[in-house]
Structure formats: structure tokens, C-alpha cells
Amino acid sequence: MRSMTLLTVLILVGAGTASGQRTAQEIIDHVDRIMRGESSRGVATMDVVTENWERSMTMEVWSLGTEYSLIRITAPKKEEGTATLMADDEIWNYLPRVDRTIKIPASMMMGAWMGSHFTNDDLVKESRLIEDYDIEVSHDGDREGVRVWELTLTPKEEAAVVWGRIEYQVRQNDWMPTWARYYDEDGALVRTMSFSDYRQMGGRLVPAVMELIPEDKPEERTLVRYTELEFDIDIDENFFSLRALRSGGR
Amino acid sequence: MMSRTSTLFRLASRNLRRYLRRTALTSSAMIVGGALMIFSLSIGDGGHEDWIESGSRMGSGHITIQAPGFKTSRKIEDRLSTAARANAEAALQQPGVAEHVISVVPQLAIGGLASSPTGARPAQIIGVDPVAEAEFSMLDDRLIEGRYLESGDRLAAYVGAGMMESLDLRLNSRLVLTAQDADGEISGQLVRVVGVFRSGVPEIDQTLVHIPLATGGAWLHSGDDVTTIAILVNGSRAVPSIQRALQRELATEIDNGELAVLSWREVSPELNAAVRIDDMGNYIWQGIMFGIIALGIVNTVLMSVMYRKREFGLLQALGFTPRQTGGLVITEGLALTAVSGFFGIALGLFLTWLFFRNGLDFSFTWDENFTFSGVVVDPIIVPLFSVRRVMQSLLFILTIGTLASLYPAIRAMRIDVAEAMKFER
């Protein structure tokens, strides 16, 4: 499925004939799927800077489709072993210090994950951008010497999304996103996600660094850097069990 | 025997009239006590009734019918089945229940999440029938901006001021509600804010969201199902009997674990505790007050016994047994307390009734709305009278009178006739 998308993308790029709306959809779909393999495993560090504190942690992440994921903190020492499991629409946390697994209610889904500016929903997002938004190419040309598309995503009439609109900038040569800006309904910028450090990982070109900056607190940020990433690994649903949550995927 | 009893009464009342000043003093204490008691009980009951009504109208009624597990889970799985709901609604039509019922509303209540670009907050989402709910709930009266839900609404939400602030919402803002649907999937629903309320209870203002029932059903794939049938009855006093009647009527469903009939005491235990604590405080205060009054009565009756040693001696010399002598003293005490208790309660009722039309305004004691456990306390307390309370008070006063006369009566019984009859001068 993943390779199908790439194939489609390649064909589209090669042909370069797709009509506006269709191209826009394909671009966003591609961007949306960059980090969504059928299965994946990765190691990432996350740096969170807030007004009052800073923290950095390293984690190992496994995923299978959109239904299953397991995240385990490996550093710092204090948090080591803390794990989050999402399986069958349930989210569980494991706290090694007290040796307890806790089921997180749905109402916590939009809570900040591990104190970062990402929400649980960002991590386990199921809805696809192309399903919820009407997408248009708003700019097709050079920005600072790079040929890019800028796409405007407006939510469909009854789509259950909070944003008033999202704007994406995507490089034309390799279809890599450079930034995404999230606006509220009054057109005010709420948060900016920027992508950088594009590199080959697990046989794919991906932005290894993602940085999220909330607009109302510009001095705060959350930065995620993937140091390892592999796709289409050999795991199945049984891997995402409460036992795996406690043992951290081992 | 009959004649002896009436003799006892005649003697007792004659004695009371003979020492008029002493009688008047004692009975005035009783009258004031009785009046205060009925006053504070009526005010207390009136206040409590107000709390209960407010709590019921803010939430799920005086009586709530829901699936047994719903109270703790608050999940959509624990909703009422269509059959259970139909049976419950039929039971509400039964004579003995129907005439007490003021309003019945269906509610689809679930815990979920409300999010805006600013963030997300846990939410208590209730799908309501806009027209019925407007009549039932107090929330539509607490409107501060916009309007309450209307029957044609679909993607509309009535949101508390606290949530508006924390999610940075305005009228017509997008609001995304997320919750687990009937199939167990997490699903989202877009609504737009049509109205804002401020109930004064922070927990409610920050979490409660009303949406049209139909929207909720479509979103959560629960169709026309509801989690809760909320029933408002004419006064909290009718609750226990209606609850029993409904439980009798719905016994099969209850045994099958399909539904439970709960009173406000079970649904809001905090409110129940608050009412009980307040009542207990009232009782303790009255206990102390009547303790003091009782001591006064003991004193007067005992003194009258001491002064009348000679009289009692004479009575016994004329054939009164010690038991009859004691009976006379108790009768005196009882007659005194009965009459003055009766007048006290009458006076109390009358004085309280003077306040009845306006209620008693306590608003000078606090500036802001005073709230606890989901109830906004109305500073104007309208007293509530009840035959039960009057009977309780009368019984209490008579008990106090009897107890207070007991010791003097024992003293009177032990009078040594020879000693009492001696000439002292």
C-alpha cells in the first residue's frame, strides 16, 4: 500500500499533468502518509521547551497501521520504561515506578502528551487530511529560490476538526513538507509545525526533524528528531499487548 | 379510673392557674422555643427544597431512570434499551405516579472531550430534547449570550461560560466534541456554539455542553436511545413514594438488570450529604436550645413541688397514692408543655407565614452566588411548612416536658406524709 502511494506519486511527478484539485489532494495525501507506514519502528528524541521548564527525552516507537502504536521512553533515567500503548481505540500508560498500567480515558486524547505541545491526538491521529479538508493549491512557484506548492486546507462543512484552515508548504522537487500552519476560524495563526533535516531512513526520504511552535507562546517549542526509522518491519497485532507495554516491546 | 384521671387533670390545671406567674414564665420559654423550632425547621426545609429543586433541574431530576452501570461508567454502552425506555415511560403514566410528575425528559449523557484550536477540556456532553429540556432545566434561564437550543437545531451547542473562556470560544465558534460511540470507536462531532450560560457552579460552567439529542444519536450511532430519563416531581417529599411505585412497576426490568430507578439522594450523594449535615446541625442546635429550656422547666416544676410539700402531703393523707402524686406532677408538666408548645408552634407558624410571600432574603450575607456540589444556593429562602414537621415538633416538645417533669415527680412521690403535715410555725 505504501509502495503504491509512492508509485502514484512518481507517476504523477513524471507526468506532471494532474489537474489542480487532484494534484493538491495527492500532495497532501503523500505528506499525510510520510510517517504512516503499514508498520514501523523508530527511535526519536523529543525536546520540550516551555516558559517554566525544559526537558529532553528519548523514546522508541513501534506502529502498525493507524490502530496500533507503542511508545517507550528510554531516557532520561527517571522516565525510563514509561510506555504508552494504543490498541483497539484504547490508550494505556505504563508507569514502571509504581508498576501500574493505567487506561487513559478518551477525554484525555487531546491532552498534552508527556508535557509536550503535541496532543495524544496528534500521535494517534486517525482521520486523514484528505477526508476532512477541501484542498487547493494557493501558490505554485518559487519561495526563496525553491519551487514549492502552498496548499490551503479548508475543513469540509461538517468535518469534526477544530482548525479554521491549515496551510502546507511542500517542496516540488521531492514532495517534502517544509511547514504547516494551523489557523483558527478567525484566520489567526495558532501553531506552526516545521519540518527539516530531510534524509533517507528505512529506505524512504523523510523529514527527520519536526518542530511545533504554539503561536501564543513563541518562546515555547517541542522538537522531535528521529534518529532511527525503519518501515514495514515484521510485527503483528499481538505485539501491541499490555504485556508488551510493561516490558517495553521486548 | 376515668374519674380519677379527670380529677388529676382538674387538679393539675387548678394548680397551674394558682401559680400563674410561674406558669407564665415557664410557658413563655416553651412558646419561644417552639416558635423558634418551627421557624428554623421551615426555613431549613424550604432551603433544602430549593437546593434539591436546583440540583434536580441542573442535573437529572428528582428521580432518574438509567441503566444500572451508567452511574459509575457514564459510558454509552450503559444506555437504556428501547424496550426498557418504553416500559419506563409506560410506568410513568400509571396512576399514583403520573399526577406527581411535572416533567420527564430524555437525556443522552456521556463523558467526552471538547476541543478548539486553543486546546481541549473534558466535557460532560448531554444530548437533550431542546423543547422539553428548556422546560425542565434551569440552565436555559442562565443564558448570558446567544440563545438556548431550539427544535430545528442540528450542529448546535449550549456551552458554559467557563468552557468558553478556557477554549477561547465565541458565539458560532467551531467546537469539536470527541467521545466513544456506541460501537466503541472514538469519534468526533463538529458543533457550533449557539448559546452561553453561567450557572454559577464552576464545575458545570467548565464542563457541561448541551447538544440536540438527534445530533448526539447520529454522532454516537445510538439512534434514538438515551442513557437517562430524568423526572421532575412536585416537591421532594413525593420522591420516596414515587420511587417505590416505579420500582414496583418496573420490578421485572430491574431484576433483569435493564434499568435502575434512582432518587436524587443516590444520584447526587454530595447534595444528600449536604442536606443531612445541615439538618443534623439544625437538630443539634435545637437539642441544645431545648436542653436549656428543659432545665428551666425542671427548675420551675421542682420548685413548685418543694413549695407544695404540704399540699402533696395532704393529698396523700387524703388517699392519694405516691404514684398518683407523681402522676399529678407529670400531668402538670405535660399540660403546661402541651399548651405552651401548641401556642409556640402556632406562633412560629404565624410568624414564619409572615415571611412566606417574600421568602427570607439572605443575600446580604454573601456577594457572589454561593454554590456547592453542583447546586446554586438561592439567597432567598422561602420556608416550607409541613404537617409532618408540626407533629414532630409537638411530639418533641411533649417528650421534653415529660422528661423534665420526671425528676420532680419522683421527688413528689417520695414525700414523707408525716413530715409534710407537720406544723412548721
Please characterize this protein's 3D structure.
- The complex is a heterodimer of chains A (250) and B (425).
- Chain A is an alpha+beta fold and 250 residues long.
- Chain A contains 5 helices and 13 strands.
- Chain A has a single domain, classed as outer membrane lipoprotein receptor (LolB), chain A (Clam), CATH 2.50.20.
- Chain A has helices spanning 2-15, 20-33, 120-124, 129-132, 242-247, and strands at residues 39-49, 54-64, 68-75, 83-87, 90-95, 100-104, 133-143, 146-155, 165-171, 177-183, 189-201, 204-214, 221-231.
- Chain A has a 13-stranded antiparallel sheet with strand order 6-5-4-3-2-1-13-12-11-10-9-8-7.
- In chain A, 29% of the residues are buried.
- Chain B is an alpha+beta fold.
- Chain B folds into 2 domains: 2-55 and 272-421, no CATH class; 60-267, no CATH class.
- Chain B has helices at residues 2-18, 20-58, 70-73, 82-91, 130-136, 161-166, 202-207, 213-219, 239-249, 251-255, 264-267, 269-307, 309-317, 322-356, 387-413, 417-421, and strands at 63-66, 101-116, 119-128, 143-146, 156-160, 174-180, 186-197, 208-212, 228-233, 260-263, 360-361, 370-372, 375-377, 380-381.
- In chain B, helix 12 (269-307) packs parallel to helix 15 and helix 14 packs antiparallel against helix 15 (387-413).
- The model of chain B has no long low-confidence stretch (mean pLDDT 84).
- The A-B interface holds A 89, 105-111, 119, 121, 126-127, 155, 158-164, 182-185, 190 and B 111-113, 115-120, 122-123, 155, 173-180, 184-190.
